[in-house]
Amino acid sequence: LRIFSGTANPSLAKEIACYLGMDLGKINIKRFADGEVYVQLQESVRGCDVFLVQPTCPPVNENLVELFVMIDACRRASARSITAVIPYFGYARADRKTQGRESIAAKLTANLITEAGANRVLVCDLHSGQSMGYFDIVVDHVYGQPVILEYLEGKQISRDIVVVSPDVGGVARARGFAKKLSDAPLAIVDKRRQGHNVAEVMNLIGDVKGKVAVLVDDMIDTAGTIANAAALLKDEGARAVYACCTHAVFSPPAIERLSSGLFEEVIVTNTIPPALKNDFPQLTVLSVA
Ligand code: R5P
219 CB less than 6 Å from ligand 1? Predict the structure, then answer.
């Protein structure tokens, strides 16, 4: 078994290798002058089961192509099996056509990963579980929830918790979280989007008055969704608001929104490298290694 890291999140790859009591495999990854990706394995993988750790986080296209080239290098070096470990799967939100003449980039991405030569994929908190079906190879789908739940339970924040989904699409995820959090009650924010990365909060279904609200989502990108939801929860009388999201994409102006005083704490994981996140006092990063 060999584990190699791409350049997207070497610290997570190192932690995973360390957990397994192994060293990371040696690999040379660089860019040519024109930006093309070059990969050379620095050790034999002939007959090995190879795991490539590479979240396709921002810069998404760069990291994605790097993953393709890494897979191709392993295939051409006669690896027995190649597992693409993709803790954050870029393009996951492009999982269906919402208007005519759009692409389904999540499916295209799945095709390209398979075509490059991966035999198996490991992903964490896919935006929609159904996207596993885009792959004709085995997909292991793991979750950040257990580490977040363990952390929250350790904090013993309150008995009066309500778990909140910041949009209707995330209800199943939030319901599962609530169930594991001592069967906490559930509330739902009815969000209507006006455009890409522009979120508008409309209504709250459920009661948060005087309670500690725990918002649960798969990702924070620009933080529009979570910040609008938090503002609504505060308006509706929530005592404190926590945000629990696996993927901290944090595109601008996420940091400003998250550190504006709406949140008691913003709890994320390291599927995307912490280096990308400008730290702020309310931020906690947990490891999924
Ligand atoms: C949407 O369906 C997702 O689950 C997230 O809520 C959304 O993509 C987060 O994006 P942003 O932080 O830009 O609102």
Answer: yes
Phi, psi of 255 (to 5 degrees): -60, -45
The pLDDT value given to residue 20: 97
Amino acid at 198: V
Is the CB–ligand 1 distance for residue 223 below 6 Å? yes
Give dist(CA 162, CA 238) in Å, integer: 9
3-state secondary structure of 187: strand
pTM for this structure? 0.95
Q: Is the ipTM of this complex over 0.85?
A: yes
Let me know: does 81 contact 32? Beta carbons within 8 Å: no
The pLDDT of 228-247, averaged and rounded, is 97
Q: Which CATH architecture describes the domain 145-286?
A: 3-Layer(aba) Sandwich (3.40)
Which residues belong to CATH 3.40.50.2020 in the chain? 2-142, 145-286
2-142 has which CATH code? 3.40.50.2020
Residues with Cβ within 8 Å of 251's Cβ and at least 6 positions away in sequence, in order, are: 58, 197, 221, 222
For ligand 1, say whether the CB of 221 is within 6 Å of any of its atoms.
yes
